[in-house]
Design goal:
By secondary structure, the chain is mainly α. It has one domain: dinb family like domain (Four Helix Bundle (Hemerythrin (Met), subunit A)). The protein is built from 8 helices and 2 strands; from the N terminus they run H-H-H-H-H-H-H-E-E-H. Strands 1-2 form a two-stranded antiparallel ribbon. Helix 6 runs parallel beside helix 8. 32% of the residues are buried.
């Protein structure tokens, strides 16, 4: 599952190589402020605002849709808004569980910090860029896991709320715990969390593309 999950994001960012450089979610281990380097206020505020804004945009893009609009497909091989939304929700849970269940439970390795330096901006600009398309692995493709839009959005917002609360309150050393990405290589825990926002932004844009199709139902 891990390799398949990473493959989802490899295609979207690998075209421009980096130079130099709903089950309950696991709870990251607590660390004392004295034992860890906390995020700067700017880093914390930036991540929280980004997750809030990308959540707001996604929810707004799916509000008030009729069943016909929710399920409309521009072509047999294209995803509906329902399918794109399901993909967003699955990825949201997967990334959060990667961070909280694995990355932050692994030993800190501050010697890797230089490898992740400068990648915040790459994530925020390259991942949402839909000029490069990606194919999701089978395990992350939509299969109708949620019966309704309301149930899907509720679960998405629950996961996003956990991430925002964690970023707002944590004293954990997010900058010194890492996981490898196949294209971007070493990313720290903070970067994986903003990656979640960037992925949501990417596919919210896809939802807007569906709505812009000339055959999209008017009601």
């Amino acid at each position: 599952m891990k390799l398949l999950f990473f493959a989802l994001f490899a295609v979207a960012v690998s075209a421009s190589p980096v130079c130099g450089q709903s089950s309950p979610s696991p709870v990251p281990p607590k660390t004392s402020a004295a034992a860890s380097s906390t995020l700067t206020k700017e880093e914390r505020d930036r991540a929280v605002e980004y997750l809030k804004q990308t959540q707001k945009d996604f929810v707004a893009a799916t509000e008030g849709l009729s069943d016909a609009q929710w399920k409309f497909k521009a072509a047999p091989d294209r995803w509906s808004i329902a399918e794109v939304s399901e993909h967003i929700a699955i990825a949201e849970q997967t990334i959060w569980e990667l961070v909280s269940g694995k990355i932050m439970k692994s030993p800190a390795t501050p010697e890797k910090a230089a490898e992740a330096k400068g990648k915040d901006e790459i994530i925020l600009t390259r991942v949402p860029d839909r000029s490069r398309k990606a194919q999701a692995p089978e395990q992350l493709k939509p299969t109708g896991r949620w019966a309704t839009r309301a149930a899907l959005v509720k679960d998405f917002e629950s996961k996003r709320a956990q991430e925002i609360a964690y970023l707002t309150e944590t004293k954990d050393d997010l900058r010194n715990h890492f996981e490898e990405h196949p294209a971007l290589k070493t990313l720290d825990a903070y970067q994986w969390l903003i990656f979640n926002g960037a992925h949501c932004k990417r596919h919210t844009a896809q939802i807007l593309e569906v709505k812009a199709d000339p055959n999209y139902p008017k009601s």
